[in-house]
C-alpha cells in the first residue's frame, strides 16, 4: 500500500480489521485467495472494496458491472454518510449475529448486508431524481438477494437484516438507527391508500422472524415484535407485542432488544392492550 493508504487504514479500524482478515483468509484458503485479493486487498478504502464487490453481484447484461461500480463509487464519494452507515451496519452484524465470526464473513457472504448497502445507493439515486435507475437497482436486489426495499424508504445506520430472505420494506417506511430484523419481515401498507402509508420503526427495535407490520403506525423505541405477529396498531416504547393481531404481552425483555436479539417471549409478562 501507499503511505496515504496506510494512514487511511490506521484511521479506519473496521477497514484495518477487514484487510487483516482477508490476508489471513488468503494465506489459509488457497481457493479463496484470489477473492480476498480482488475484493479487499487490492483496494485502498472500504468504499472502493464495497463498490467492486457489490457491482460484481448486481451487474448484468442491461447495466454492466463496470457501470454499476461507477454509480456506487459516485454515491460513496459524494455522501460520506453512506460509508459511515456501512461501517455501523458491519459492526451491527458482527456484534449481534452469533453465526458471524468476522467483519470479513459479513462483508463477503451475508446477503442481508449486501441488500442493505445496495439500498443505500438506490436511496441516493432516488434523492438525485434518478428514479428509474433506483428502481432498477431495487429490482436487481430483489432478484439476487430476495430482499425488496423501495428506494424511497429511509433507513438509519447500525441495521442488521439477519438471513434477510423475504424482507419487504415499503415506500414511506422510516427505520431509525440500531434496528434488527430477521427473515420474512414485512413493513407494508394496509391497502391501496396513497401518501404516507407505511410503518415508522424507532430506535433499538427488534422485529422477529416473519413479523408483519401494516399501515402508518409507529413501533416505539426499544420495543420487540414477536415472530409471526401481525401488527395493526401503534406499539408503545419498551414493550413486547405478539400474536395475530398483535397485543402487548409485557416489557421488551431488555433495555436494547435489537442488540440482545432475544426472540423468546414466554416470560414477557401479563397480557395487555396496544
Short characterization:
The protein is of the alpha/beta class and 274 residues long. It has helices at 3-10, 13-28, 33-41, 46-58, 65-78, 80-96, 103-109, 111-127, 131-145, 257-260; strands spanning 148-149, 154-155, 160-162, 168-169, 174-175, 180-182, 186-188, 200-201, 206-207, 212-214, 218-219, 224-225, 230-231, 239-243, 246-251.
Furnish the topology, listing elements before pairings:
Blueprint: H1 3-10, H2 13-28, H3 33-41, H4 46-58, H5 65-78, H6 80-96, H7 103-109, H8 111-127, H9 131-145, E1 148-149, E2 154-155, E3 160-162, E4 168-169, E5 174-175, E6 180-182, E7 186-188, E8 200-201, E9 206-207, E10 212-214, E11 218-219, E12 224-225, E13 230-231, E14 239-243, E15 246-251, H10 257-260
Parallel strand pairs: 1-4, 2-5, 3-6, 4-7, 5-8, 6-9, 7-10, 8-11, 9-12, 10-13, 12-14
Antiparallel strand pairs: 14-15
Helix pairs in contact: 2-3, 3-4, 4-5, 5-6, 5-8, 6-8, 8-9
Shape: globular
* Helical segment count: 10
CATH architecture field of the largest domain: Orthogonal Bundle
Strand order of the largest sheet: 3-6-9-12-14-15
CATH homologous superfamily placement of the largest domain: serine acetyltransferase, domain 1
Model description:
The chain is of the alpha/beta class and 274 residues long. The chain has two domains: 1-147, serine acetyltransferase, domain 1, CATH 1.10.3130; 153-274, 3 Solenoid (UDP N-Acetylglucosamine Acyltransferase, domain 1). The chain contains ten helices and 15 strands. The protein has helices at 3-10, 13-28, 33-41, 46-58, 65-78, 80-96, 103-109, 111-127, 131-145, 257-260; strands at residues 148-149, 154-155, 160-162, 168-169, 174-175, 180-182, 186-188, 200-201, 206-207, 212-214, 218-219, 224-225, 230-231, 239-243, 246-251. The protein has a six-stranded mixed β-sheet. A five-stranded parallel β-sheet has the order 1-4-7-10-13. A hairpin with a 2-residue loop joins β14 (239-243) and β15 (246-251). α3 (33-41) crosses α4 (46-58), α5 crosses α6 (80-96) and α8 packs antiparallel against α9 (131-145). The longest helix is centred in the N-terminal third of the chain and has 17 residues, at 80-96. The mean pLDDT is 94.
